[in-house]
């Protein structure tokens, strides 16, 4: 069961390769052996679920366009690695510049029965996204009772409404509630207990966390997976304070801090 020392590769191994590209997922999954691939999903005009963090293609596609107004064919024309090569010349590779936006189906075709942590991004602007996501997951047999019981396909969101929809569509699916800074401290135990009946974990901003808050969440029955933990000092502190895992751009460093490797880190 994936519930201790969990390493979630945030947008893949995105400290080393362009986020949400096969280059980044290959590194995290095959080379660094992260437990999960983290995927932010959006939906095109023609209803295809694609993986990209932003709602527009400006930052990683270096051009103009809003995903929900673009067809899959248009999305497939953009390249999502040149910005990374420009920003991190010491990590640049020619093939990064050729990376295109993956569809969710392509991710599942490439990584098969890997473990996935899928975020419904901006679900309010994509009516029907949860239904479409469920359909794709079922097509690839990623919502079997066994996989759900083993936390191998997890849905995460900042939107509680989106998690409730997912729970209604697939009651056994493991869910994580992402939390903006301050949110957990503002919530009463009573409110959190209601959520805990169908949400197994919380994902707070790591800067929000300290030992008392982690202990409070554990007492209420949640696992705690903060985002986005990239600094080794922060990792060490929060591991000592009791986190169960984390989202990280550096899966190799988090594995090292969890003592899952013999000190090996990835060399590009
Ligand atoms: O999903 C965890 C973390 O990724 C949330 O923040 O903005 O990087 O998707 P963001
Ligand atoms: Ca995310």
3D architecture notes:
This protein is of the alpha/beta class and 268 residues long. It has a single domain, classed as Phosphatidylinositol (PI) phosphodiesterase (TIM Barrel, Alpha-Beta Barrel), CATH 3.20.20. The protein contains 14 helices and nine strands. The protein has helices at residues 22-31, 58-61, 72-77, 82-87, 94-97, 104-111, 129-139, 145-149, 160-169, 183-186, 189-196, 211-219, 232-241, 251-257; strands at residues 6-9, 36-43, 49-51, 116-120, 153-157, 175-179, 201-204, 223-224, 245-248. Strands 1, 2, 3, 4, 5, 6, 7, 8 and 9 form a nine-stranded mixed beta sheet that branches. Strand 7 (201-204), helix 12 (211-219) and strand 8 (223-224) form a beta-alpha-beta unit. The protein is globular and about 50 Å long. The model has no long low-confidence stretch (mean pLDDT 96).
Could you write a compact summary of the structure shown?
The chain is of the alpha/beta class and about 270 residues long. The chain has helices at about 20-30, 60, 70-75, 80-85, 95, 105-110, 130-140, 145-150, 160-170, 185, 190-195, 210-220, 230-240, 250-255; strands at about 5-10, 35-45, 50, 115-120, 155, 175-180, 200-205, 225, 245-250.
């Amino acid at each position: 069961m994936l519930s201790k020392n969990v390493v979630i590769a945030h947008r893949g191994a995105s400290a080393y390769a362009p986020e949400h590209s096969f280059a980044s997922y290959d590194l995290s999954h095959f080379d660094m052996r992260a437990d999960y691939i983290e995927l932010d999903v959006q939906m095109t005009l023609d209803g295809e679920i694609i993986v990209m963090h932003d709602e527009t293609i400006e930052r990683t596609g270096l051009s103009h366009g809003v995903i929900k107004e673009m067809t899959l064919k248009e999305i497939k024309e953009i390249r999502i690695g040149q910005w990374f090569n420009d920003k991190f010349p010491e990590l640049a590779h020619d093939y990064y510049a050729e990376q295109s936006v993956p569809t969710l189906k392509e991710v599942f075709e490439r990584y098969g029965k890997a473990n996935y942590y899928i975020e419904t991004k901006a679900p309010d602007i994509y009516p029907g996204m949860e239904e479409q996501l469920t359909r794709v997951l079922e097509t690839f047999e990623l919502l079997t009772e066994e996989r759900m019981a083993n936390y191998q396909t997890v849905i995460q969101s900042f939107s509680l409404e989106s998690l409730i929809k997912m729970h209604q569509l697939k009651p056994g699916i493991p869910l994580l509630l992402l939390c903006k800074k301050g949110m957990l401290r503002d919530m009463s135990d009573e409110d959190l207990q209601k959520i805990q009946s169908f949400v197994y974990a919380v994902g707070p901003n790591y800067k929000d966390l300290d030992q008392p808050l982690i202990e409070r969440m554990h007492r209420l029955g949640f696992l705690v997976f903060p985002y986005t933990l990239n600094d080794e000092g922060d990792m060490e502190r929060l591991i000592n304070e009791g986190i169960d895992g984390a989202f990280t751009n550096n899966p190799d460093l988090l594995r090292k801090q969890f003592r899952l490797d013999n000190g090996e880190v990835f060399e590009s």
